[in-house]
Structure formats: C-alpha cells, structure tokens
Amino acid sequence: MARMTLAQFKRRIQPSHDLRAEIAALQKQLREAIRSRDMADRHSLRLLQRVVFDVLGDPDEGPDGELYGEMGYVRASARRARRRRSRVERERRSR
Description:
By secondary structure, the protein is mainly alpha-helical. It has helices at residues 6-57, 66-70, 87-94. The chain has one domain. The longest helix is centred in the first third of the chain and has 52 residues, at 6-57.
C-alpha cells in the first residue's frame, strides 16, 4: 500500500472533496441566477413591446419614424418591395 493511515489518506484527498463541493454550490448558484435572469427578461420584453407599440401608434412617429429606426427596427420606407416572379421564372429557378 501507500504506507499511510486511513486518517492521513482522508486528509490528503480532502482538498479534492472540498473543491467538488464548492463547484456543486457554484453550479446551483448559476442555475438560480439563470432562472432569475429569464424571469426578468420576460418582464423586460413585455415592457419593450409596449414601448414599440406606443411608437408605432404615435402619429408623429409610426412605422416610418426616426425613433422606430433608432430602436433597431427597419423603417417602412427602407423596406424593399418583394419582386414577384412569373411562373416561367419560378420554373426555371427550380431546375
């Protein structure tokens, strides 16, 4: 054997056990923090949607307003109209 008593063996492997316990506690703390963040995000998203709807409903701003664009959305005037393809073009592209 390794010529040590059981007490010596336990004392020498104790740091490994302590670190595993610390990691388990940190993982639990992380799971709880993620759960709290997700709940906060749900509330924030609802509030953000209300603000966006208010901007869209504002007669001075609306979907083409500068504020709407600054919020990260594509303004109505910046959107391109979709090009409609004829049946012949669609058939040609599908080959």
